[in-house]
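Quick review question:
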């Protein structure tokens, strides 16, 4: 993380101190963060414990676990994700999904639910998931088909969720389901469901190009107590969007960390590699490409931390700012990493090299928590109004 980056006015002294402590910790634990990906479920549990013991997961909540009107410091989350992704896509994913699996409880859960689920999440001994996506309803939240039917002092869940990070290891799930007859977003509610509840099962684990613990969850005649409702009936869409409003900026920060690593690796590589009797860095074509990479990194950082600062320091929604940050940072990181692979040559596509790992890890970020195309729709809608 560059000194110039931390000198920007988006940050307060506490953020600079956090970044310094995080950097020192990450360097000291680099061997654990960059561990092989042989068993992603085991790695997920181990890294959650490592992050929990170090206290980094505690930044996922307010000092008193939150509640209505409370806020979470998004700049801190962005700084943490940026640094973790430099070392490990799995470690970054662990922090992000622990957040998605706890922030709805922090902001909308009762004190009873907070006390039941949050301590384990922050300690890294329990693992949450965010069960929003379905096979035919990804970015279009209003099309969710999973149902939650009230039955006395219980709800009965039926439906299937897929592409759910942490599904194979989760000890609880945040589940979004349709509770009323209203079509679209108005009929959705959110629940916290203990993974050991009868009627909950993992139907499959999924293999993706950037391995992490991910799978599909099925709910069949799953009975949960009514007090597992988050917020009020019909507030599911609000809860989902409030959560994503926080984490979309941090997706951009994760992409930024990947891009910074790619740029750093590239500068080292072209300064050392000789081609036709000259350092690769001496060729103007190399210099032009590296300059473009540097501009992409800094513009991504500016948009990410503008969105985070706006969320932390103003009272308004940041749908447009977070969409811009997520869209630009992930697309820019893709360009930066592609350039790194090109300048590395054959080594860039050799399995096990750093830039090869980065190339796999950046691609999903352009899709999850809203594709680039969805972010463009959000931005345009904010500017033009609904048509």
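Suggested answer, residue by residue:
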């Amino acid at each position: 993380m560059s000194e110039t980056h931390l000198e920007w006015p988006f940050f307060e002294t506490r953020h600079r101190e956090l970044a310094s402590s995080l950097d020192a910790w990450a360097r000291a634990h680099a061997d654990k963060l960059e561990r092989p990906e042989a068993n992603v479920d085991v790695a997920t549990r181990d890294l959650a414990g490592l992050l929990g013991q170090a206290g980094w997961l505690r930044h996922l909540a307010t000092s008193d676990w939150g509640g209505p009107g409370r806020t979470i410091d998004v700049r801190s989350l962005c700084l943490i994700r940026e640094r973790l992704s430099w070392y490990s896509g799995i470690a970054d994913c662990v922090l992000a999904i622990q957040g998605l699996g706890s922030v709805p409880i922090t902001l909308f859960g009762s004190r009873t639910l907070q006390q039941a689920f949050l301590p384990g999440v922050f300690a890294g001994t329990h693992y949450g998931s965010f069960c929003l996506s379905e096979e035919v309803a990804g970015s279009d939240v209003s099309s969710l088909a999973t149902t939650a039917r009230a039955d006395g002092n219980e709800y009965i869940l039926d439906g299937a969720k897929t592409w759910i990070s942490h599904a194979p290891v989760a000890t609880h799930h945040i589940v979004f389901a349709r509770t009323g007859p209203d079509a679209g977003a108005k009929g959705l509610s959110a629940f916290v469901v203990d993974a050991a509840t009868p009627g909950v099962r993992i139907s499959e684990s999924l293999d993706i190009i950037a391995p992490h613990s991910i799978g599909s969850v099925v709910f069949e005649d799953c009975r949960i107590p009514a007090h597992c409702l988050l917020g009020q009936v019909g507030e599911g869409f609000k809860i989902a969007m409030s959560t994503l409003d926080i984490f979309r900026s941090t997706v951009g920060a994760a992409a930024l960390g990947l891009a910074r690593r790619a740029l750093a690796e590239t500068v080292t590589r072209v300064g050392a590699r000789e081609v036709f009797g000259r350092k690769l860095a001496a060729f103007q074509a190399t210099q032009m490409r590296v300059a473009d990479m540097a501009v992409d990194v800094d513009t991504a950082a500016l948009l990410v931390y503008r969105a985070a600062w706006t969320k932390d320091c103003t009272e308004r929604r940041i749908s447009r700012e977070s969409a811009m940050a997520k869209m630009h940072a992930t697309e820019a990181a893709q360009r930066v990493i592609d350039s790194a692979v090109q300048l590395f040559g054959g080594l860039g596509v050799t399995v096990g090299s750093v830039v090869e790992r980065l190339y796999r890890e950046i691609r999903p970020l352009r899709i999850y928590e809203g594709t680039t195309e969805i972010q463009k729709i959000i931005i345009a809608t904010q500017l033009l109004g609904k048509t």
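Why it works: The two ends are 42 Å apart (CA to CA). The longest helix spans residues 236-272.
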